[in-house]
Automatic annotation (TrEMBL), chain A:
One of its GO terms (molecular function) is metal ion binding. GO terms for biological process: tricarboxylic acid cycle. It is found in: Membrane. GO terms for cellular component: membrane. Its cofactor is heme. The chain crosses the membrane at residues 20-38, 58-78, 99-119. Gene3D superfamilies: Fumarate reductase/succinate dehydrogenase, transmembrane subunit. Keywords: Heme, Iron, Membrane, Metal-binding, Transmembrane, Transmembrane helix. The gene is sdhC. It comes from the Bacteria. InterPro entries: SdhC_prok, SQR/QFR_C/D, Succ_DH_cytb556, SuccDH_FuR_B_TM-su. It comes from Candidatus Brachybacterium intestinipullorum. This is Succinate dehydrogenase, cytochrome b556 subunit. Belongs to the cytochrome b560 family. Its main location: membrane.
UniProtKB/TrEMBL annotation, chain B:
It comes from the Bacteria. Keywords: Heme, Iron, Membrane, Metal-binding, Transmembrane, Transmembrane helix. It holds the Pfam family Sdh_cyt. GO terms for molecular function: metal ion binding. This is Succinate dehydrogenase hydrophobic membrane anchor subunit. Its main location: membrane. It is found in: Membrane. InterPro entries: SQR/QFR_C/D, SuccDH_FuR_B_TM-su. The chain crosses the membrane at residues 37-54, 74-92, 113-133. GO terms for cellular component: membrane.
Length: 125, 151
């Protein structure tokens, strides 16, 4: 019998944590998206206004924020594809745990590709 | 032990969870999240690759960079799709979050009204910006403009 301590098929396992991470990353991306459309809208004000505000994205603090943002976007994208597979692929539910670890591995590979390149852009190597 | 047999339906037997038949709003919303999500993976990964990976990455983004991109209808359509799908997908996700956590009817209504307002304003603003953008505004400092703005 499953209990709160031992967890269940879902609770405290890959299924639950991927749901939690999907929700948090989605909320964060949505908030960023609202700000990002506003800052891009400054191209209609003047080149100076746009360059001034977008210049903040090139600072160290924002540069690290972009790492977190890209990490959230890549996770949300890959886990979203996992959800589609779980819903529409006949073997999806059987392999949902493997799919989760697949998401983690592909996420790590893509981040390993992005991070050095981004840090080079930021710190001009 | 009883010898009578009870007929238990196969666990995979289809059954109707609600009395509703055919399409309904929540099902369309569920379908939309998957359809738009799959498209957004392509759109957003392409956006990140071109803007943050190629060239000078984030350091290369300025007015001239945006002007150069939006001179092409390809990137206008790309960004327009990303804007609409992203905001509706994200707005629908936040709607789900509000429905899950906001207990009071009034709180839920106020939060969703704010959400819909933000989504509509942002979509309208972004759409106007994409279609009314002038990469070579009259009287602007020439060094800040894309290279094709001459004369």
């Amino acid at each position: 019998m499953a209990s709160a301590q031992s967890g269940t098929l879902y609770r405290g396992r890959e299924g639950m944590w991927s749901w939690v991470a999907h929700r948090i990353s989605g909320m964060a991306i949505f908030l960023f998206l609202l700000v990002h459309v506003l800052d891009t809208a400054l191209v209609r004000v003047s080149p100076e206004a746009y360059n001034e505000v977008i210049g903040h994205y090139k600072t160290v603090v924002f540069g690290l924020g972009e790492v977190a943002l890209v990490g959230a976007v890549i996770f949300h994208a890959l886990n979203g594809l996992r959800i589609i597979l779980v819903d529409f692929w006949s073997k999806g539910t059987t392999h949902q745990r493997k799919l989760f670890w697949g998401v983690v591995i592909v996420w790590a590979v893509l981040m390993a590709g992005f991070l050095p390149r981004h840090l080079m852009h930021m710190f001009g190597a | 032990m009883s010898t009578s047999t009870t007929s238990i339906p196969d666990p995979t037997t289809r059954y109707r969870r609600t009395g509703q038949r055919g399409l309904n709003a929540e099902m369309l919303s569920w379908m939309f999240m998957r359809g738009s999500g799959a498209l957004l993976v392509i759109l957003v990964f392409g956006h990140l690759f071109v803007n943050l990976w190629l060239g000078d990455g984030v350091k290369g983004i300025d007015f001239a960079f945006v002007g150069g991109k939006w001179a092409s209808p390809f990137w206008q359509v790309w960004d327009l799709l990303m804007l609409w799908l992203g905001l509706i997908h994200g707005g629908n996700g936040v709607r789900t979050i509000i429905n899950d956590y906001a207990r009071g009817d009034r709180t839920r209504m106020v939060l969703k009204a704010l959400l819909y307002f933000a989504v509509v304003v942002t979509i309208v603003l972004g759409t106007l910006v994409i279609f009314t953008f002038d990469p070579c505004p009259v009287g602007a400092e020439p060094s800040l403009l894309p290279s094709f703005c001459e004369g």
